[in-house]
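$ ./design --mode recover --in tokens.txt
reading tokens...
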């Protein structure tokens, strides 16, 4: 996707008075817990008027519960969303939660997003977490974006005054976040997006949307550092993981992608003042039936200078992938940019190691770098990509199959080590 993620303008409200209400048992327990600062302060949405499997909108109850959790004087807080279905509109879970150092949001239930699009801010999130330290989001629950009713309103490629649909889970300005064992289905736009986050760990995520759903990227990362995603399954209609501008120290490991558009760096170079991408490792991933495997894409005619460097893609299995390895520095999805000005994004120190499997197109390796700034230090080590067996393909000798795949290079002189199928560009 080519859309810039904006910061939010969060309204930061500080409460100086305690809300005194002790109607339920849970509340009484909460009051007692507050006295002992070392114990865990429990906040259950049911204590704030939410009812499982009740068709009503529960946004207000969730917001009231969050307020209580975040303003707690206890250092450790558990925010509980129990089993059952809960319908909610846009939610902003924002900090700072001054005295809370560990905040666990335990989602066991199935959250359903409101389908009333006028409730959402353009480019915002359905559920936004912002400016919190030490958040853990877990519990095995599901975030259901109910995207099917929204996708027909995704018309930003044809309407410049369009409203961007909401990302299901958006994290902004967060430190020390863990997201573990949750599912996200049918987001209206991206499933998960990180903006300006530090020390983020995501693991055991299950992300799904139909292969023809628009812009349902699994995970989008921007202007963040020390981010680690692992052991997840992502099947969507757009990028599996997209790594945008300004990221450093990003590790993506043991992810199964497909269907979708594969793992992408970029697109970079659309806006002025973009920051560099550096220190990316993608390791032990499997791509099945995706349009791209590993893709690096930068816009033609980029307005500013930037760079992407030190990127390693290692132990990647491609299963019937259309473009297993692809660098495209003349990305331009709109017909308006026929100006033919080369990209000003400098790509260097790119390592592809142990990439094997099958390609559904003949050009299995495409390295198309910028005419203005050729790629530097590109290494391919042990690449073995055969053509996916098509009808009659099995009858071909293996050697003929090897000959069938090829490499295409522009403005790059790559370094080749070990096995090379397809054969290198000459
Ligand atoms: C946070 O902790 C400080 C210092 O212990 C205390 O003065 C303040 O009242 C606490 N704030 C809340 C909201 O409990
Ligand atoms: C949709 O949300 C808007 C804004 O909150 C509200 O005014 C409108 O009544 C809602 N529409 C329906 C059908 O609920
Ligand atoms: C996160 O850490 C950075 C760097 O230490 C700091 O500047 C920022 O204020 C922290 N964010 C929050 C929400 O505390
Ligand atoms: C794009 O979708 C919006 C609804 O989100 C609609 O108001 C607008 O007319 C649509 N534009 C086009 C060109 O279809
Ligand atoms: C992931 O979610 C999809 C859709 O809800 C479900 O069909 C699938 O079984 C889940 N997979 C795992 C490993 O939990
Ligand atoms: C390249 O990135 C890796 C992984 O993030 C990091 O460990 C390494 O120090 C970086 N190398 C250089 C030369 O910056
Ligand atoms: C491989 O992918 C192509 C298109 O991407 C598809 O038409 C074909 O059915 C796939 N083959 C297998 C064996 O899945
Ligand atoms: C119980 C728990 O998870 N404690 C953690 C709270 O956060 C600090 C860091 O601020 C950790 O060191 C604790 O282990």
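writing sequence...
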């Amino acid at each position: 996707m080519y859309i810039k993620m904006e910061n939010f303008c969060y309204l930061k409200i500080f409460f100086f008075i305690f809300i005194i209400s002790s109607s339920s048992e849970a509340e009484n327990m909460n009051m007692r817990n507050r006295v002992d600062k070392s114990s865990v302060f429990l906040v259950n949405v049911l204590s704030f008027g939410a009812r499982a499997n009740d068709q009503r909108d529960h946004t207000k109850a969730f917001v009231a519960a969050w307020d209580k959790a975040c303003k707690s004087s206890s250092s450790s807080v558990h925010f509980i969303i129990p089993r059952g279905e809960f319908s909610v509109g846009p939610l902003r879970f924002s900090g700072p939660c001054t005295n809370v150092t560990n905040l666990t949001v335990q989602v066991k239930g199935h959250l359903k997003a409101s389908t009333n699009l006028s409730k959402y801010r353009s480019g915002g999130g359905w559920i936004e977490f912002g400016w919190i330290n030490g958040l853990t989001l877990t519990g095995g629950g599901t975030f259901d974006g109910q995207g099917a009713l929204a996708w027909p309103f995704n018309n930003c490629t044809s309407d410049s005054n369009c409203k961007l649909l909401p990302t299901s889970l958006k994290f902004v300005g967060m430190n020390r976040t863990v997201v573990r064992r949750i599912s996200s289905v049918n987001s209206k736009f991206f499933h998960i997006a990180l903006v300006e986050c530090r020390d983020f760990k995501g693991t055991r995520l299950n992300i799904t949307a139909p292969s023809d759903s628009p812009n349902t990227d699994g995970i989008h990362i921007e202007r963040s550092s020390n981010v680690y995603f692992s052991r997840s399954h992502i099947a969507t209609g757009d990028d599996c993981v997209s790594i945008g501008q300004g990221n450093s120290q990003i590790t993506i490991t043991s992810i199964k992608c497909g269907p979708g558009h594969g793992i992408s760096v970029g697109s970079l170079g659309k806006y002025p003042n973009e920051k560099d991408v550096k220190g990316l490792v993608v390791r032990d991933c499997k791509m099945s039936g995706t349009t791209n495997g590993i893709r690096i894409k930068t816009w033609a005619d980029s307005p500013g200078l930037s760079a992407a460097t030190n990127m390693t893609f290692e132990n990647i299995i491609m299963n019937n992938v259309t473009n297993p390895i692809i660098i495209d520095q003349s990305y331009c999805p709109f017909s308006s940019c026929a100006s033919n000005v080369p990209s000003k994004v400098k790509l260097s120190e790119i390592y592809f190691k142990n990439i094997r499997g099958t390609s559904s197109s003949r050009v299995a390796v495409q390295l198309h770098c910028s005419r203005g700034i050729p790629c530097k230090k590109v290494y391919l080590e042990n690449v073995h990509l055969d053509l996916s067996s098509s009808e009659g393909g099995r009858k071909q000798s293996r050697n003929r199959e090897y000959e069938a795949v090829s490499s295409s290079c522009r403005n790059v002189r790559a370094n080749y080590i070990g096995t090379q199928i397809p054969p290198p560009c000459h």
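exit 0
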